[in-house]
Design a protein that fits this description.
Enzyme class: oxidoreductase
GO molecular function: 4 iron, 4 sulfur cluster binding; cobalamin binding; epoxyqueuosine reductase activity; metal ion binding
Low-confidence stretches: 2-14
Number of helices: 16
Catalytic activity: epoxyqueuosine(34) in tRNA + AH2 = queuosine(34) in tRNA + A + H2O
Family: Belongs to the QueG family.
Largest sheet: 4 strands, antiparallel
Mean pLDDT: 94
Order of helices and strands: EEHEHHHEHEHEHEEEHEEHHEHHHHHH
Number of strands: 12
Structural class: alpha+beta
Strand order of the largest sheet: 3-4-9-6
InterPro entries: 4Fe4S_Fe-S-bd, 4Fe4S_Fe_S_CS, QueG, QueG_DUF1730
């Protein structure tokens, strides 16, 4: 965190501290002017969430995501991550662009590859960090130098709990944040600050008795309300997992090649989901419904070129082929699919070869 002392000193004159209530209102207005859908302010107490996280880690539900445990309590104690932090400004940004192919239609087309809707366009990390920096600059214009640091899924931050405490939504039974006026299709970002701003009221939960998200999960990764086993989650399997996908989970993956949205697609609150006005989130290369055979034919050079600046890069080329091979195994049997798989049967990667062999066996059975 950028440190500053004698914040309200100007030469030998002592200035009155800012009106923090007015500043908080201005911050929320500026956030919307900068393209965020909403903003809220919370304190730093995450005691109950820390216990919940520890139980999740103790249950070995994080799989290969060892970074979830690596930083100890820095994730749940903001002032340990950034000394001096008193408040967290949380923001959200909608990500579904107008004109995107209907998710259910793509999932229903077994010859197409399903990419989670958040990953169809430009990677949100840099874009949101730039907007948060601009927000910090506006605050600086009023209060002068102050301590802050911007985060967008880039450090050990318990972003959903902080956003809930800032009034931006509640954590649903699928562990995704839900806003009663905008559903759950949005990104989160934070500005840790040493400004003693007034905090907002935490959001109350409104899932009620609904369990649609639990019931729809293709791999039964949601063990119960608020209990996700990442090791079974398709988003984990297609993005975080770097080795072989467990065989028993391959068929339930269907045609999902990067992430999964099913638990959000069935959520009743997403009837209120808002379209984004951010043009950078528009689908690139027709990835909102491209055919699996075509995607599988991409060379590594094509993959790197076409996914430049996109979240899809995170899976890597090997993971990309692995995921598509599974989807091709689940596709309707056809000569075109068998030919596409056979062309990769001798791929240099053992992981790709394994999944291609599995897919070929399924196609030929």
């Amino acid at each position: 965190m950028r440190r500053i002392y004698n914040r309200w000193m100007s030469g030998t004159d002592i200035q009155a501290p800012p009106d923090y209530a007015t500043l908080a209102r201005d911050i929320k207005r500026w956030a919307i002017e900068l393209g965020f859908a909403d903003a809220g302010i919370s304190g730093t107490d995450l005691g109950e969430d820390e216990q919940h996280l520890q139980r999740w880690l103790d249950g070995d539900h994080h799989g290969e995501m060892e970074y979830m445990a690596r930083h100890g309590t820095k994730r749940t104690r903001p002032a340990e991550l950034e000394p001096g932090t008193q408040r967290v400004i949380s923001v959200r940004m909608d990500y579904i662009p107008p004109g995107t192919a209907n998710a259910w239609d793509v999932l229903g087309d077994a010859e197409a590859g399903y990419v989670s809707r958040y990953a169809l366009g430009r990677d949100y990390h840099k874009l949101m960090r730039q907007r948060l920096q601009k927000l910090a600059e506006r605050i600086h214009g009023v209060v002068g130098d102050f301590g802050y640091r911007a985060y967008v899924d880039s450090a050990p931050v318990l972003e959903k709990a902080l956003a809930r405490n800032a009034g931006l939504g509640w954590i649903g039974k699928h562990t995704v944040l839900i806003n009663r006026h905008a559903g759950s299709y949005f990104f989160l970002g934070e500005l840790y600050t040493d400004l003693p701003l007034p905090v907002d009221e935490p959001a109350s939960a409104h899932c009620g008795s609904c369990t649609r998200c639990i019931e729809v999960c293709p791999t039964q990764a949601i063990l119960g309300p608020y209990r996700l086993d990442a090791k079974r989650c398709i988003s984990y399997l297609t993005i975080e997992l770097k080795g072989s996908i467990p065989e028993e989970l391959r068929t339930p993956m269907g045609n999902r090649i990067f992430g999964c949205d099913d638990c959000q697609l069935v959520c009743p609150w997403n009837k209120f989901a808002q379209m984004t006005a951010e043009p950078d989130f528009a689908p690139r290369h027709s990835l909102d419904g491209a055919k699996l055979v075509e995607l599988f034919a991409w060379s590594e050079e094509e993959f790197l070129k076409r996914t430049e600046g996109m979240a899809i890069r995170r899976t890597g080329y090997e993971g990309w082929l692995r995921n598509i091979a599974v989807a091709l195994g689940n596709a309707p049997k056809s000569a075109a699919v068998i030919a596409a798989l056979a062309a990769r049967a001798d791929h240099p990667s053992a992981v790709v070869r394994e999944h291609v062999a599995w897919a070929l066996a399924k196609q030929r059975s």
